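Hey, resending since the last one bounced:
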Amino acid sequence: MAEPIRILTAVPICDGHDSAILTINMEFIRHGIEVIYLGYHRSAWDIAREEVRAIGISSYNGGHVEFFSEVLAFLRKENAKHIGVFGGGGGTITKADAAIMRRRGVEHIFFAGTPFDEMIRFVKERYGRRSAATRSREEVVRRFACNAVATRTRSPALVIGVTGPGGVGKTTLIDELVLRFLGSDLRRRIAILSHDPSVVGKGALLGDRAAMIYSQDDRVFMHSLATRGAAGGLSQATEPWLRRLKRAGFDVVFIETVGIGQEAMPFSRNLVNCRVLVMSPEYGSRLQLHKVVMLDAAEIVVVNKSDAAGARTARSEVGQRLDLNARGQKLIATVANRHRDPGVDELFSLLEQLLK
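The structure tokens again:
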């Protein structure tokens, strides 16, 4: 697939109007654009830290003149003036405000009532001709690494592959593990390669950041990848990006796949150090467990949402399935969206041992 236009969208503050940007995102995707969606209540630094062709900001709360200017200032500071900035705000941004913002470098402001076709045409015409990346990808990673703490003598990166069906809580689980890795060593740097599916013949919604809290940290580098037609849960760009992250000296790298089915086995042993399969208690009958090939390959199996009905039975059945493998695989029950969950603590302890 040809490389699509890749943009980032975000809402500074949640005020009940953030549903508008979701609708606009879906229109972008329908017209072949890849959208990294940060969600709402994002700082200017959160918004400015990704290598994209353009940033679209939806602002309904006032303060937009200074907020957009702050995003532009971060881009200039990080040698990323080639990234365009546009946005809108219903009736909040006035014509006079828009004129000030354009003088400061904002490329366009859409006002209430603008047709979707006009927005799509602007993005395609303005950013379709723009270079996909003025800086090299190595420079993007190196730039971020320099924003973290001073480097030290490092062991090779611990690469953790996290996979499982869609909706089981992989993103939340990774976010909780990031919190623990950051807290256990104040010099530690972490990278996340997150994958989302491309819609056939269209774009992609790269929305994992919207569900993450602790990963919005200066010691965490996150890069979103669309599958762009590749099968198996990863992208053709996954391995090149992993090599860049290793060269940059990150201590821990998470690779999160798209939601997978029974037959998928996305991680080879030479790609990751540890394979984690995340499941929910709702996998169907016991017979279905014998069809999940990742239950043979994963070093750690996590039954997330273990406070749900049927979770105790699920843990027992999955445990019996792993016992048949006789490989010493670990089974852990977690509730990733519960603060200080002991199951997540147990999983973190197992992973941290691999760093020693």
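The chain has twelve helices and 13 strands.

Sorry for the duplicate.
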